[in-house]
User: Fold this.
Amino acid sequence: MTVSLSGLQVAKEITEQFPDTVVEATDQAVLVKSKSIFEIAQYLKNSPELSFDYLNFVTAVDYLDCFELVYQLTSLKHNHSLILKTRCFSRERPTVPSVVSVWRGADYQEREIFDLMGIIFDGHPNLKRIVLWDGFEGHPLRKDYL
Amino acid sequence: MEVGEPRKYIYSDVELDQHEGQEIAELMASSQQPLPDPDRWLDEDIHRNIMLTTVDAVIGWARSSSLWPAICFPACCAFELIAANASRFDLSRFGMEILRASPRQADLMITAGTLTWKMAPQVRRIYHQMAEPKWVIAMGACGISGGIFRSSYNVVPGYNRIMPVDVYVPGCPPRPEALIYGIRMLHRKIAQAHTDIKLQPM
Assistant:
């Protein structure tokens, strides 16, 4: 069975590489700053002892004061998993670096988040609406939609 | 060889998306009111008294007993339709077991499921591609009025916004018996409608 790594332990390793990027770490998840998510994603994928080579999903939560992005990562090599989170606080133009160049599977999911939540993924190769059509106004999964 | 401007998006042309969005917006704007029932269903007796002839009866009987449904199953009501088609309920008793993959060969559309505005232009195109005379059965709550998704931002509130519907079969989803009852009603309707054949003078 896949072992879920302790967020506290992974947070320690991330802090060694990238100081001042971890906002909060619990046993379940690591919350990092959004502007360094790309470097952390690269590190988590390429580090030999972590080696998170598979992205289960990306999703987003609207907490009204911020958007939270949740990345569920798995290492097929070591058979362990981790939940990585990040927050962005702008409502007009929330921007997060894209992780498509790290995990290709994030492509459509980031487009869906952009479509329904309006979060802009910086560096995404094809950021346009995927579920709704071109010209649709607003982002319907936001809490303040309608 | 000239190299054009680099594309902004790598997978598809932006123009296609814009065209699709424009088409959907136009369809939404033009289908705010439900379309009325196309046939003379309520005053059938009057037409019957005046117009029913032997030719009408034969043509109506022939049409009603060989309906060819088009494949257009956007959502979960399709399973009840498949069940109605399969051996237990056996739609072939009514001469219509073959579902046509091509709308050109079909004359009945059973709208089994929720329709989103993004899908609506395609479904309407299938309807327009069907050969006349053609009929539509709105199957299930979503097909009739949008159902529980009626107030959603991207669900068509009833197929009768985009195409004229002949028979409504309520249910969520309707049982195969209900669908068969609706099809029997449609048979009656087809048989009672008078045909518009004008005999040419020799």
User: Anything to note?
Assistant: Chain B touches chain A through 15 residues (CB under 8 Å). Residues 55 and 195 of chain B are 9 Å apart (CA to CA).
